[in-house]
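Suppose a classmate hands you a notebook page containing two proteins, each written out with its sequence and a corresponding row of structure tokens. How would you begin to make sense of it? This section walks through that situation. The first entry is reproduced here exactly as it would appear on such a page.
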Amino acid sequence: MKRTALLFMLLCLAAQAGAQAPERPILRVMLIGNSQIYVNNLPGLLRSLARAQGDGPLLETGTYVMPGAELVHHWKNGAATKALEREHWDVVVLQERGGLLACIASPTQKEQDDCRNSLRTHRRFAELARTHGARVLLLGTWGPDADWQENLDRGLRHVARMTNATPVLSGTRLRAYQQAHRDLVLFTDDDLHPSLSASLIVTATLYREIAGRPAQAADLRLDFPLLPPGSPMGDNLPLEQNAALNALIRPIALSAAELPPLLEAAEPAP
């Protein structure tokens, strides 16, 4: 009996040692926009942050971006729409050019052609995404001052209501963090391209909406190109398949100790 019990215990221990950790779910995320997404490689940061979490979903990304592009450019180009129709995506992130959505908050500007085209294009992308089973997030941008930011956020919320999408107010979080850390550089030029710290705040904000949970501080390995403004983009290929960017890869590591203030900035105000 003792030998039988011992053998059974050894078999149980061997089974536990050989058991694999449960597989983490994978969410496929498409991002459509311009340099506010590709500067510092927001898709790569999303994948890295998700991978570093102890559990929760892993992320795969497909990114369609061009410098200064409005969403209507991507709709007319057709590369992103074909990918939406042919592949499975769980989440689609739409990011409009710079301060364009501020026009929707203005009674005198909302009837202008570029403003009307933006709303129409948001509706088209949102309808197509939902037809193919994807959630739609609208990634907010940031303006040069508080008044501009307020109009941007009002415009974003309006478009979200019109398209049944979820607004992601990353610009508001960046502005709040800048007010509390005036010595920190969050924007690198007059076009308000984000610094790496700013991109990490946006990443954590977006991750929360995609994964349905806040990110936890963990060591990050950034094994993708941290792209500067003006990087060469392919008009018909997703960012992830742009071989010309491989020469820009300089893997770096970020310590978990660097992240808590940035992750806290991504959390909604109480």
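The notebook's second entry, a different protein, reads as follows.
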Amino acid sequence: MYKRLITFLIILPMTLFVFGQDVNADEQYQNGLQLKKKRLYTEAIEAFKKAIDLRPDYTEAMYELGWCYNELNQFSKALPVLQKAVKLKPDDSRIIYESGFAKAGAGFLNEALDDYNKAVTLDPSFSRAYAARADFYREVKENTKAALADYLKVLELDTTSMKIYYWVGWCYNDLGKFELAVPYLMRAVTFEKQNHLSFSEIGFSYYSLAKYSEAMQYLLKADEMKPKFETTLYYLGMCYVKTGKKVDAVKKYNELVALGSEYGINLLNEIKNMK
């Protein structure tokens, strides 16, 4: 009985110490979440690091720490933290996705794609992972069809993803399916009324459909939002060419020349062919 009591008295302080560490780790974690919510990412990083120091297997804190590093473009710091978290929790799609994001930022592109693939396999409803993979296909692989499939999947899962409407429209334009691009770009300009890219892109769609008055309507809005944007100027100039407005077309050519744009020569050739 005496020996059991001694053992209990030895174990009790150790248990209380571990429990106290866990409580403190949770406090630091919650503090980090509050700082993250306020976009104080540097301060949040310190809080999450303290939480992990107190509880070395705290995967949620590791995920948040890696997320903050990624948000600050500190990918080389994010990667080891997230890789450790993946080892501790290999079936967590969020951690795997965030690891892929860090790998992409650090230049490990094929490994990043592997992580995006794993994330959507583990969680087929993970819209952010589809969006990241779509960006990868579009930017790195230049595979517009694959990107489009993933962007459309994102919209199946989340119709509020504003930027995705733009990219779906962009992909359809890139594939020469201009009529299909228009409704998505119309949604994009509804969601983001000050995004010149969406207005310029829908102007390109209408230009490609030979609907020049509609094209000019959106291109002029884009030009008003962001003057001296090369693509907008070029297709405005092309619309003027197609509608016989040579003086206006020449003005756009001069603006492109002032920017040193390669589009200038293309527009000039079209102007020369005007009657």
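A careful reader of the second entry would note: Confidence is low (pLDDT under 50) at residues 14-20.
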